[in-house]
Write a structure and sequence with these properties.
Layout lengths: L7 E4 L4 H10 L9 E7 L3 E10 L13 E11 L5 E10 L8 H25 L11 H18 L6 H9 L2 H7 L8 H10 L1
Antiparallel strand pairs: 1-5, 2-3, 3-4, 4-5
Helix pairs in contact: 2-3
Length: 198
């Protein structure tokens, strides 16, 4: 904190006491959230995110430098099927109420969730946690390559899932080159350069 850095943590079930204390407090929350955000998510979903924050638990929780405690509800509706799902998470941040509003905490959490999501995708599809690359810069380099690959797949904005896209690419080398825009028909710039030369 002396260096101006702050933390933002999602409290999970592997911290049962902390999780239980925060969940118990928010049982009696107001029906109206401190901030609500609705928007279109990936894969044809509509997401509504609500956040409640409090400073009441700051001196009660056995956790250093607590500035605020929060609860977030995510509600998702699939536009194609109409199916709905919901998720509730709890968290803490060292940012005080005068430095970070509920809207800003919700945005921070979404950014944090995106990073966690990328970690999960890499581990699930590459089984990274059981990888055998341990020495030198090997682990960092292979992770960067895997993140690059996942980034390319996400940029395609396909209706297919990441595993489905990876399976298709595994059996079709030509498609890999198309994704990398290394073939004549996948990179208009190459075509224009060749036309100007000719």
């Amino acid at each position: 904190m002396a260096r101006g850095a702050h933390y933002h943590f999602t409290v999970k079930l592997n911290q049962p006491t902390l999780h239980e204390e925060i969940a118990f407090y928010f049982q009696n929350r107001s029906a109206t959230a401190d901030f609500t955000c609705t928007g279109s998510g990936a894969h044809g979903r509509i997401e509504t995110r609500k956040i409640w924050t409090t400073t009441t638990l700051n001196d009660y929780l056995k956790f250093p430098h607590v500035g605020q405690v929060f609860m977030i509800q995510r509600e998702t509706v699939c536009k194609k099927t109409g199916n709905t799902s919901s998720e509730t998470i709890y968290g803490i941040t060292s940012q005080t109420a005068c430095r970070s509003s509920p809207e800003e905490i919700l945005a921070d959490n979404r950014g944090h969730w995106s990073v966690e999501s990328c970690h999960w995708i890499i581990d699930w599809n590459y089984d990274e946690d059981r990888g055998q690359i341990h020495s030198g810069h090997g682990p960092e380099n292979i992770t960067r390559l895997r993140r690059f690959a996942i980034g390319l797949l996400k940029a395609k904005k396909s209706k297919e899932t990441i595993p489905e896209m990876m399976k298709k690419l595994m059996w079709n080398t030509r498609t890999v080159f198309d994704y990398l825009k290394m073939t004549k028909n996948s990179n208009p710039r190459i075509n224009s350069l060749r036309a100007s030369v000719n």
